[in-house]
Batch of 2 targets.
Target 1
Amino acid sequence: MAISEDDIARVRAATDIVALITEQVALKRVGRRWVGLCPFHAEKTGSFYVNAEEGRYHCFGCRVSGDQITWLRETQRLDFVDAVRQLAERAGIELTEDESERHLHQERRRLYEAMDQAVEWYHDQLMNAPEARVAREYLKSRGINGEVARRFKLGFAPDEWDRLTTSLKFSPAQLEGTGLGFKNRLGRYQDFLRARLIFPIFDSSGRAVAIGGRVIPGYTDETRREGKYKNSPETPIYSKRRTLYALNWAKDDIIREGEIIVCEGYTDVIAFFEVGLPRAVATCGTALGEDHFRTLRNFATRIVLAYDADGAGQSAAESVYQWERQYEVDVVVASLPAGHDPAELAREDPDALRRAVAEAIPFIEFRLERVLLAADLSTPTGRAKAAEAALKVVNEHPSDLVRDQYLIRVADRLGLDVDTLRHSARGTPRRSSPVSSNETPPPRAPVGDLPRPGTEALRLLLANPAGVREDLPARLFVDPRQRLVATALSEHGSVSSAVDALRSRGEVEAAELLDALVVMDAPAELDPEAVIAQLVRSAVTHELRVIDRELRQGVIEPGLAMSVVRDVKERVNELEGPTRQAAIADLREWLEARGVA
Ligand SMILES: [Zn+2]
């Protein structure tokens, strides 16, 4: 990592986390904290809390948490270094990076600039060039008017081999680095796309990163043997595995609705926007893969596949089920009438397209229906064959419970005995899945399950670190996670660096605990003295239990131990009374002698 700890701390300190988050999420003030609807999971009441002073956010629903840098990384899909850079730029901070880093960064910036200029140039061609009339007419015939062309920055590449290259003065590095041009056999630079309609592709933060080109019927020379669609190659600014077309425009609606529609083509995406569902994206010339899922998961938990029927049926079932579990999303399928893609359906019957999304069915059900609809159910042999095919589909699902529900449904539809079907299901080999069916999510440690004295002491420490640190040493915390948090807080100047330290030591649960505590409302109601007393008492009680055990095991001598225990118990009771401070002092002394405080 080329960015220094100092720079990271400066960037954090200079960035108002509430201002940053409200660019995408509405927050309202509650006490000393800010609350809003979590952008990382679908919810109707706000569980997403922000602590402005410490620069941290945490969701009590899906338990994401982080600081300004994590926020940018998660919402804009940036890597760490780019996120810090972007924040530094916003705050006007000059980073002290090393030379090679700076050089790489500048190179990438020149590629973004070139791509941006090219997109503007292609767009200007489409809107204004006389020879683009054929493209404009084609778009009109597909129901795409000028306003839509402007919204999606559509473009036109003339039927010449170097019009872009000669019109814009790009360096060879820019042409090759963006994939906009390449060196031909004569050693001259040539445009990557010609005689095509251009669909520019932006990353989720709205920077142009690539272009996709579609042939224009009636315009392209038929002898040219290239595909209907042609996309930019992978470049330093464009990764096909990660990029989703239109995510930059769809983001807001996706977050608002908790739903994302995934389709196959650029015109399908545009069709969804046009029928009032501006939350559609498309993969760019690759199948929907794991990296796409990871990106989708950051924006919504309901993923609607809106491919034409054959396309959806062919999605790799095993991967889809695995990603559903791994990323805790629901994958559903919009059933489109056979032979229709979304763009066609939008023109013929926009209501049907909206309905297909609203009534989308689980992926397994969709696959099962296709098998059952294709079967001949009029003969016993036909039904047996259908049962076999259906079992194969059902068996792909990793959950026993889900499988059994669909077995019952299949038995019902085919008029077969469900136990017979269950029996044959057991005989049919289950396809191995990397995710086992009885796998449970990682254990979670909500704040509420931990000892209350420790929780209150930590909240007090967070609210008034200087005032009470001396009285709340880490060793008084009985619960190991709470103790780790107290230690990290005493060793680090800010909550963010304490969280980083815990995570780097692999103490994930303690880091999560700290993240949750820091966004809880400041405990104005807590009386420091009472909190200290409680913590001391809980430490004492814990020690007494240890002594009890030692007595039973014969480690210590009974007579003496009993008198100590009796004495200590009396002092614990005094913690409520008027002599509380003296009792606290006594007990801390006693704990110290026991090697605790
Ligand atoms: Zn959440």
Note: The pocket of zinc ion is lined by residues 38, 40-41, 47-48, 59, 61-62, 64 (CB under 6 Å).
Target 2
Amino acid sequence: MLYSDAHLHSNPISGLGAEKIGKKMRETGAWFACLVSLPPYHYGLGLSVDDYRRSIDMLVSEAEKLREAGLKVRVLAGFHPAEIDEHMRHGRSPEEILDLAEKVFKIIVEKFKEGVIDGIGEVGRQHYSTAPSRIVLSELIMIRAFEIARDHDMIVHLHLEQGGYTTVKSIERLVDLVRLREDAVFLHHVTYNEAVYAEKTNMNYTVPAKYRSLKKVFNSNLSRLLIESDFIDDPKRPGVSSYPWDIPRRTTRLIEEGIIDEAQANKVFIDNIVKAYRIEPP
Ligand SMILES: [Zn+2]
Ligand SMILES: [Zn+2]
């Protein structure tokens, strides 16, 4: 069985790194991965524009290692909502944070034009409790990401609260107002509750590969289902997300249990990926 991972991270400083991840993914049948940046401080860097530039360079070289392992890859760099809180904790003002985000987006566009990055991710809204104004600030940055994605025909991965209808509807409205094509948008780390509403839009969505949610979404007639590990490659936080190779393991279990068949798996792991990421099939 061939599988893909619609959203994962790698950390060459404190985790396995893309070389080991790519090798193990290939051994377990992966053909595609969408690699998404981690905040610079996860790579042992600071919070300046230069640190962002260095972290994006690391991301690009990590993506290259996945390619060398034999995977097809999409690469995204962004400004995660958790980074907004991190900057606030370091005493930055909202204006300074917006200005920094603008500079980071500039680097991303530069790298996009060089052909080494495919889009923006993650941006979005905090999924945890924080000051309401910080959520608004995150949203301002997300809207700016939409404009940039529209102007350059990029894809965007969104990290959001899991608010079912409200989450999906609010994003759809913003995307439409900005006139970004809906299919450029990926709602990442969604549950069944968001997936059902996302199906009614042209936006993509990715569901974490936990056994129980896989079982539920695979059986729900979702025509554009994508599966992600959201692996964060942080040995200090095992269990926060899945490993990429949990995807084939859990899917095989579902096939063996007779809950899904191989054709369903192929549609999700090949056809849907090809369409959503506008990429050549394996
Ligand atoms: Zn996320
Ligand atoms: Zn992620």
Note: The chain has one domain: 3-276.
